[in-house]
Amino acid sequence: MSQSTNSYPAYLLGIATAVPENAYSQEHALEFNLNIEGTTGRQKKFMQRIYAGSAIERRHSVIADYGRPPEEYTFFPPNASLKPEVTTGKRNDLFIREANRLSEEAVRKLFAELDGIGPEGVTHLVTVSCTGFSAPGFDLHLAKEIPLPPATR
């Protein structure tokens, strides 16, 4: 098989990350979720196994409520039962807003660390989130806000 004349070497010049400001121990996150009203014994046992097997020590979140008493909640209903449950729409709106903010923070940090390389030199963009989904995604937000060259893949 012959090599394509359009192939070019690829270089990874840097990686940057951004995480939410709030961080909690794995134990705290588990305790918070185990105390949600209506959680069955079976669900609690399942959560305990999942949390124990995750090898995660700290969880970051854009939601500050995890570290507050229930009467001070601003995302969840201000009660210990967390009822009524936060809608999927409200959760997704928060994800979109914060994914855009954090991804832009990471990219701007990356360009500050790369000597002499700016947005005009970007040919490809790889984004990762283990939290949520939006379409179009925060990659489109980055392409517009940084801005990235129109040919960026």
Radius of gyration (CA) equals 20 Å
**Portion in strands:** 5-15%
Q: Helix share of residues?
A: 25-40%
Going across the major beta sheet, what is the strand order? 1-2
Structural class: mainly alpha
Low-confidence stretches: none
Looking at the structure, what is the overall shape?
Answer: elongated
N→C terminal distance: 25 Å
Report the count of strand segments: 2
| Average of per-residue pLDDT values | 90
Provide the succession of SSEs. EHHEHH
Largest sheet: 2 strands, antiparallel
Number of helices: 4
What does this structure look like?
- With about 150 residues, the chain is mostly helical.
- The protein is about 35% helix and about 5% strand.
- A two-stranded antiparallel ribbon has the order 1-2.
- The chain is elongated and about 60 Å long.
- It starts with about 20 loop residues before the first strand and ends in an 8-residue tail after the last helix.
- The mean pLDDT is about 90.
